[in-house]
Amino acid sequence: MPERNTVTWNTMIAGYSRHGDVKSARKMFDQMPTRDLASWTATITAYMNNGLWDEGLLLFRQMITVKIIDNEYLKPDQLTLGSILAGCANMGSAGLVFGKSLHGFAIKNDWEVNVTFGTCLVDMYAKCGFLKNACLVFDMMKDKNVVAWTALICGSAQHGYGQEALVIFEKMKKVGVEPNELTFTGLLAACVQAGLVDEGPQIL
Fold first, then answer.
1. Which residues form the PPR repeats (predicted)?
2. CB of 43 within 8 A of CB of 62?
3. In angstroms, what CA-CA distances link 184 with 102, 141, 145, 197, 201?
């Protein structure tokens, strides 16, 4: 049997993650002879995508202590932080604090917020009720996909800003972004919040 290279190991970890088998993903990670950033990210993502947020954050903290050469340590990229932010969005106040620190890391390192990382930030702030922050990140994004728009709409509706969510939806339509099923779920919640239950079918 040919020796596995790092890419093969990483692919196996990602495969276990997609099937919800976090235990096997972690076993693969622990058995790896060498690990790169993708290895750490894939395993952190396995935890985060399966609701094991504390374990994911613990592994992230371990990752940033890994020394590469001399005084240089392994640094996360936007994909790593994006996977963690997805978990932070579901962790309440503790997740918000950690998520804000990750946003600060991105600013400190002068990262240009791409659509994937930006959407994760918008989703995290919106779900935690920090809609002003969500809007600031959203406005900074050069490219905005349906996921980013929907995160803003759903976050607004979730925290009682139904009318604002409907305004966001109108802007979304004007720029030609097609809504998805989750968008419509958020809009229904927005109609309820705005007292527009009867008008909902016409708005949608």
1. 5-39, 145-179
2. no
3. 30, 23, 15, 14, 11
User: How high is the pLDDT of residue 203?
Assistant: 61
The answer to whether the beta carbons of residues 182 and 150 sit under 8 Å apart is yes
Q: How far is CA 5 from CA 2, 10, 12, 33, 131, in A?
A: 9, 9, 11, 9, 44
What are the CA-CA distances from residue 17 to residues 99, 139, 202 (Å)? Answer: 22, 32, 41
| DSSP 8-state assignment for residue 34 | S
| CB atoms inside a 10 Å sphere around CB 41 | 24
Q: Which residues contact 100 (CB under 8 A, 6 or more apart)?
A: none
Tens of pLDDT, residue by residue over 66-119, are 887 777 889 999 999 999 998 898 888 888 999 999 999 999 988 888 888 999
Tokens, residue 61: 């903290």
